[in-house]
């Protein structure tokens, strides 16, 4: 009778052990033992701001059914003027808030974005601390923060919170591990699907984006954080070591765009476009073009549009120096996108009708070409930190071609526009 009872109790204990989730080393009933925690990562989406992926922290209370995902990536166009002003200043405000997990996953499914959930093997006290910190962060007085693309975003917030919970072991593991990548490298890799966005962002990002990243810094990308924590082993308070990720589940394979593995090799394409522009502008020195009303108008019009576009870019680059866009500083594209080109865009059409403006247009184009050549010389020195070879290939030939095309003296062009033949 006693033996039978002991066997039944042993069998019952075994069943309990088998069906009890392994949430760490806490005892049943210990505060936090009822919680389960996941790192939820969504793959790239179609919108520009979705190309980098997204993540959230999911917390489930198994006793109450409370299932919430804390999201640090919320922004709104609700006040467009204020949003644009903050964006231009580099002071965009993002918000952290809890979302119903089911609703969040359904939204990702509708957008066709792949979702991976990684359950984290934390102790009950660690899970309870994580929940308390997240709920404190979600309070109205704490939920807003100044967003920085690479330094303070939805992924770095989660990285920092997890690192705090496990006693700095993520920093210890990845803080000095090199990657041979940079912020620019990842930006080019993830925006290549849209060449215009790619070129615009590459032009606006300055030297600081070209510094080599550690794995810790690279975790600004949600998918990198997902991949790196997968193999992390952490020390427990009792001295044992366990994998941080208890299990991983792909809850939705998604139909959205895939993540590119490396930036595109577009240097030759940029150079080809630059040489074509330079050859077109240099044709202004040809008698056949100079004496043809149609061709002179066409080439001058193209040069005017080119000067206006990159002169405007230069003015934006100068303006960014007075904002909080930290990664727009030390931008060597200013050698190429010279704000003086705006004056060239005004002088070129005037030079068509008034020969006295030809000398002004020639002086401006020669000056801009000289500054662009200085940019090339600086780029090949050890002190240059900006990897802008593609923009040198694109803009320097055009600068040289325009300066060469306008080299003719005013006397070499008919002073009477009526003398120009169609």
Strand content: 5-15%
Number of strand segments: 9
Outline, from the CA principal axes? Answer: elongated
Termini distance? 116 Å
Oligomer: single chain
**Largest pleated sheet:** 7 strands, antiparallel
Strand order of the largest sheet: 6-4-3-2-1-5-9
Give the total of domains. 2
Kindly list the characteristics that best describe this protein:
422 residues, alpha+beta, 2 domains, two-stranded antiparallel ribbon, disordered N terminus
Descriptive report:
With about 425 residues, this protein is α+β, with helices and mostly antiparallel strands. It folds into 2 domains: about 20-180 and about 215-250, no CATH class; about 265-420. About 50% of the residues lie in helices and about 15% in strands. It is built from 16 helices and 9 strands. It has helices spanning about 1-20, 80-90, 100-110, 125-135, 155-165, 170-175, 185-190, 195-205, 215-220, 220-230, 265-280, 285-290, 295-320, 340-355, 355-380, 390-405; strands at about 35-40, 55-60, 65-75, 95-100, 115-120, 145, 235, 240-245, 245-250. A 7-stranded antiparallel β-sheet has the order 6-4-3-2-1-5-9. It has a two-stranded antiparallel ribbon with strand order 7-8. A hairpin with a 5-residue loop joins strand 2 and strand 3 (about 65-75). Helix 7 packs antiparallel against helix 8, helix 11 (about 265-280) packs parallel to helix 16 (about 390-405) and helix 13 (about 295-320) runs antiparallel to helix 14. The chain is elongated and about 90 Å long.
